[in-house]
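Predicting holo structure, 2-acetamido-2-deoxy-beta-D-glucopyranose bound.
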Amino acid sequence: MASPPGAARLAALLLLALLAGPAASRFAPADNHLIACGATAPAVLPDGRRFVPDSGCASMTLRSAAPALPSAAPAAPAPAPPSPLHAAARVFSCHASYDLAVRRRGRHVLRLHFYPFSPALASARFHVGAGGFLLLHNFTASSPVVKDFLLPVDADVLVLTFVPEAGSAAFVNAIELFSAPEELVGDIATLVAADGVNRTDGLSSQVFETLYRVNVAGRKVTPFNDTLWRTWVNDEGFLVNKESSSSKAWSFGGRIAYPKDSRLMTREVAPDNVYNSARSVRSDGNLTWGFPVPARNRYLVRMHFCDIVSKALYQLYFSIYVNGHLAVKDFDISSTTGYLAYPYYIDYVVDVEDEGMLKLAIGGSKMSRPGEASGFLNGLEIMRMNKTGGGMDGDFPVVLDMGYLVSKGFREFARSLLCGLVFAGLFLVLVMLVLRLRTELKNNGTLWFSQSVDSGEGKLAKAYQLVPTKTDY
Ligand SMILES: *[C@@H]1O[C@H](CO)[C@@H](O)[C@H](O)[C@H]1NC(C)=O
Ligand SMILES: *[C@@H]1O[C@H](CO)[C@@H](O)[C@H](O)[C@H]1NC(C)=O
Ligand SMILES: *[C@@H]1O[C@H](CO)[C@@H](O)[C@H](O)[C@H]1NC(C)=O
Ligand SMILES: *[C@@H]1O[C@H](CO)[C@@H](O)[C@H](O)[C@H]1NC(C)=O
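Done. Tokens:
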């Protein structure tokens, strides 16, 4: 009986089609490099993306002076790696670069996966640059980490360079480079400082490194459920006043509505799973989150709001504090969005000096009804901004050693020039052979390259008479 299994199969196919439904409307980036470094076979992730090995890919080349060793993770008895991307790495003993073809210039998401599966990798100390910009300076991946950048790309090739510190090696397990949606980060934001708030612009030329993505009161969101394959973690570990009786966690089963005409507020900004949950605070309370961050840096803080808390509009008013400074007082989200369950975000720029801790808070307002929710927050993103035009941590021109790249580039240029000359020579010979062949055929109808040196062409013909087709000369 083939029918029941057949029916089950059909049902399974239908289910698959249903599950794949939303995937059809998924964000399709113009550039999409997914590279499994050092791997021998493609790696398919649970989110469906396929990472190709870094050898033999047409739109990407790996340049390395010394052999860049593929390195396989130790087999048993070590536990299976958490991701297929962690099964192998590419290890560089000296400078090496990936040239990644860029079809559409503009902002790109760059993610570098580091999974140090051997002590040598865990202690490796190196620098990583992209497009001549230093992203990671004197970096060590002692534990598994994904470095997530948003950077403007203004060339047809993005050169991603790995530079080991003296006596060390560099490594990488996987690379993602894909076009970012235009609306992901705008050019302007609100600068929050001790002396008040100001408008700031120029964000679109900045490089951002995402340090935290937090789903407030919600579950961890994996790349499977995120429109841009991001990871969001729960906020509980960052709450400063956990025991606060004035706060409450919310989750929402309804539909998150997106403004139809808005190019700025789309599902790519944050997935529904982030807007589906929130933590609220009463009018007499404060809710504070604290994030350890490198001191003396500028940060972009994105706060995500979606009113899944209120039963009606105009019930909520709250204050937002960024790094202890009042960013907005009695914020009225209903007037801003005009609807309930509409996502919205605010971008703040803030300088963190010596504290090494970035505190974000929402505080209730007397304008809200006492005892009821007054303010809320759904999600948080904290991104470090570049310090100079040369690097995330400042300018280190010596580290990237562009001179090396130039001289290497020149060597390659010289080699390709030589190859070109040889090729041109061969082509010339071929043309002359064909010409000669035609006269030969005309003269005696044989496909034999004459040995007789009766003309200037004869010399060439002699030197290349390797393929006689007839011997009946
Ligand atoms: C990198 O860090 C190590 C250890 O802190 C230090 O010895 C080395 O000088 C640093 N290198 C650079 C280029 O900053
Ligand atoms: C994706 O999100 C849905 C809805 O929240 C959830 O049921 C599912 O477990 C999530 N899947 C993964 C792999 O995170
Ligand atoms: C909330 O915190 C801010 C900043 O720390 C403070 O000014 C405000 O008085 C606090 N509000 C309440 C109700 O505790
Ligand atoms: C960050 O880098 C960009 C170049 O991508 C540059 O235009 C900008 O001025 C830099 N930011 C700072 C604060 O130097």
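DSSP finds seven helices and 28 strands in the chain.
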